[in-house]
Design goal:
The chain is of the alpha/beta class and about 180 residues long. It is about 20% helix and about 35% strand. It is built from three helices and nine strands; from the N terminus they run E-H-E-H-E-E-E-H-E-E-E-E. Bound molecules: inosinic acid and magnesium ion.
């Protein structure tokens, strides 16, 4: 069994980080011409995405993708599968991928490679959280909300086996048997 322990990041801290990211992104894309294409990565990014887009002032189109590199549980498999693809054509567009957390970096590295093959003008990645100590490939997000230590976290959209996405704070999850 798993259990949620103490709060690692409060809803207030997250709100401040999201505001800062929104401001920065709005500045960076100001006057870029066409609407940017904001791509939310399902399911984990849904809470972050909803908060972030309301802090971005430039015109945008919203789309979603679902990719998976994780099976049920907390162990990475190192392969990305597209479960739901974009509805929009991104050729010539500025794409902003919105992800919940960067861990090994494998998901984002593979996804960026896939999306670059569709000839966008640019691709940037914004992640609510980043665990740089867990990196298995060389990947850096363009915008990072909050850096976190090597703990498995849930809440603010992040899950364990589909659970805990609704928690407003980010909390540490402990799994009995040490299966992290
Ligand atoms: P990566 O390919 O290892 O970077 O995997 C990133 C994905 O793993 C994220 O989109 C999350 O779905 C999941 N993930 C990584 N760390 C955590 C965590 O601490 N809590 C919940 N999900 C996580
Ligand atoms: Mg995810």
């Amino acid at each position: 069994m798993e259990r949620v322990t103490g709060t690692m990041i409060s809803a207030e801290e997250i709100r401040a980080a999201v505001e800062r990211l929104g401001k920065q992104i709005s500045e960076d894309y100001a006057g870029s011409g066409k609407e940017i294409v904001v791509v939310g990565i399902l399911k984990g990014a849904f809470v972050f995405l909803a908060d972030l887009v309301r802090q971005i002032s430039c015109p945008m189109i919203l789309d979603f993708m679902q990719v998976s590199s994780y099976y049920s549980g907390t162990v990475s498999t190192g392969n990305v599968r597209i479960k739901k693809d974009l509805d929009f054509d991104i050729a010539g567009r500025d794409v902003l991928i919105v992800e919940d957390i960067i861990d090994s970096g494998i998901t984002m590295q593979c996804l960026k490679r896939e999306l670059y093959s569709r000839n966008p003008r640019s691709i940037k990645v914004v992640a609510a959280f980043d665990k740089p100590s867990r990196r298995k490939v060389d990947f850096t997000a363009d915008y990072i909300g909050i850096e976190v230590p090597d703990e498995f976290i849930v809440g603010y959209g992040l899950d364990f086996d589909g659970k805990y996405r609704n928690l407003p704070d980010v909390c540490v999850l402990e799994v009995d048997g040490g299966d992290k």
